[in-house]
Design goal:
- The longest helix is centred in the N-terminal third of the chain and has 39 residues, at 11-49.
- The chain has a two-stranded parallel ribbon.
- It starts with a helix and ends with a helix.
- The protein has 439 residues and is mainly alpha-helical.
- The protein is 68% helix and 1% strand.
- It has helices at 4-9, 11-49, 57-71, 79-87, 97-111, 118-135, 140-159, 162-171, 183-199, 217-251, 257-273, 283-289, 298-312, 319-337, 341-357, 360-371, 376-389, 418-426, 434-438; strands at residues 174-175, 400-401.
- It is built from 19 helices and two strands.
- The chain crosses the membrane at residues 12-40, 52-69, 146-170, 182-203, 215-237, 257-273, 336-355, 375-395.
- This is Voltage-gated chloride channel family protein.
- Keywords: Ion channel, Ion transport, Membrane, Transmembrane, Transmembrane helix, Transport.
Length: 439
């Protein structure tokens, strides 16, 4: 049992117990992510080779929806379930979350849904890590640390960014607050999980950024302006995804029919609009955004295909599509702001993610890990501005407000609860009877 008493009394014991536990979690999560990434490569190559598979997307969506309806009701909350268990520990996350989200995501990519991969890696990492809760009889504090370590390991191993992965596991739980008690297990799990993935032969995409402008008032102002655009894109992405999901749940009672309908819409859109570049991960288009001008509407295309895929119930993550939206939006803004394409594509890559996930620090570190330390100041400014402009919206509805961005809202409220609170407080209050008040 992880003893809080000994952890406080003996720093060496604390380090040793978490060195062992975080390493085991990292090895398991990193190995699972490696298998997942290899499976995604196969699914993407198969879909490209057999273009007709897109017409089976509705049936694939129905099958995944039925699978979750039959076996996955307790884990369909996905990333939000993990956040809820960190804030209010109740039940150990079932291990079946890992194979279910793995199968669901690979199937989604095989048949052409526009989804990502981060959500799958995070859910696999957290569900694997949480099995140690009952095995070691962990208390709630130790369980939170285990879950955050699993999140960090999954995120780090799927993107090859250990520093960003470590901070993501700490920062994503609540807006404006990090659990520093878990910084050691999260950092260790992120670093080891990344190394494990590399040992299995995982290769991460390299994004070339050859020119970073010198620091000046004009460049800093242009980056802040771009950050506003990135924050708006993040807000639209999150809000429209939740809107489609809410409409689907309201009007389509049978859950497997929701991804079936979404699959029909996506497949028809791919055929009618020649939208192959907007499905799957879209890594080739992201790489192109760093190299030459793209169509200025590419970010809208990816946003539309992704919110329909995720909102209708296909499994996967949001982060890689957010990278796509940000990189192509930055590419479109570059001529307007007289800045290099690769530079703004890189800033958009991380800033839209920062605004949508409410993780500006992790996103800044990701920029430094991917593009070099010289971009640090610009990335920090773009990510913070995008985080502010995105407001109290986000892709994770179970995030809690621990620090106010600008507008006053109740501290501790979840993003899912905010709309009802806002409607309640926007209603006009009845006039006060001054005579009765005086009496």
């Amino acid at each position: 049992m992880i003893s809080e008493h000994f952890a406080r009394k003996n720093t060496l014991f604390f380090l040793l117990q978490w060195l062992l536990l975080a390493t085991v979690i990292a090895v398991l999560a990193g190995s699972a992510s490696a298998l997942f990434l290899f499976s995604l490569d196969w699914a993407t190559a198969t879909r490209i080779t057999h273009h007709w598979l897109i017409w089976l997307l509705p049936f694939a969506g129905f099958a995944v929806g039925w699978l979750y309806l039959r076996f996955g009701r307790s884990v369909e909350g996905g990333n939000n379930l993990i956040l809820e268990e960190v804030h209010r520990p109740a039940n150990t996350i079932p291990l079946r979350m890992a194979p279910l989200v793995y199968i669901g995501t690979v199937v989604s990519h095989l048949f052409g849904a526009s989804v990502g991969r981060e959500g799958t890696a995070v859910q696999m990492g957290a569900s694997i890590a949480d099995q140690f809760t009952s095995l070691l009889k962990l208390n709630n504090d130790a369980r939170r640390m285990v879950l955050m370590a699993g999140v960090s390991a999954g995120f780090s191993s799927v993107f090859g960014t250990p520093l960003a992965g470590a901070i993501f596991g700490l920062e994503v739980m609540a807006i404006g607050r990090m659990h520093y008690t878990a910084v050691f297990p999260c950092l260790l799990a992120a670093v080891v999980a990344d190394l494990v993935g590399l040992m299995w032969g995982v290769h991460h995409t390299h994004y070339a950024m050859s020119l970073i402008p010198s620091l000046s008032l004009w460049t800093l102002g242009a980056v802040m302006a771009a950050g506003c655009c990135f924050g708006l894109a993040a807000r639209v992405f999150a809000d429209v995804t939740h809107l489609i999901g809410g409409v689907m749940k309201k009007y389509v009672a049978y859950a497997p029919l929701r991804p079936f309908i979404g699959g029909v819409i996506v497949a028809l859109a791919v055929y009618l609009l020649q939208g192959d570049r907007y499905i799957g991960l879209g890594i080739p288009v992201i790489v192109d955004a760093f190299q030459h001008p793209l169509a200025p509407w590419d970010f809208l295309g990816k946003l539309a295909f992704t919110v329909m895929s995720l909102g209708s119930g296909f499994k996967g993550g949001e982060v890689t599509p957010l990278f796509y939206v940000g990189a192509t939006l930055g590419n479109a803004l570059a001529p307007l702001l007289h800045l290099p394409f690769a530079f703004l594509a890189g800033l958009g890559f991380v800033a839209v993610f920062a605004g949508a996930a409410n993780t500006p620090i992790a996103s800044t570190l990701m920029a430094i890990e991917l593009f070099g330390a010289e971009i640090g100041v610009y990335a920090a400014m773009a990510c913070v501005v995008a985080w502010l402009v995105s407001g109290y919206s986000g892709i994770y509805r179970s995030q809690r407000v621990a620090c106010l961005k600008h507008r006053v809202v109740p501290v501790g409220i979840t993003l899912a609860e905010l709309p009802a609170w806002q409607r309640k407080n926007s209603r006009p209050q009845p006039p006060v009877d001054e005579a009765k008040a005086d009496s």
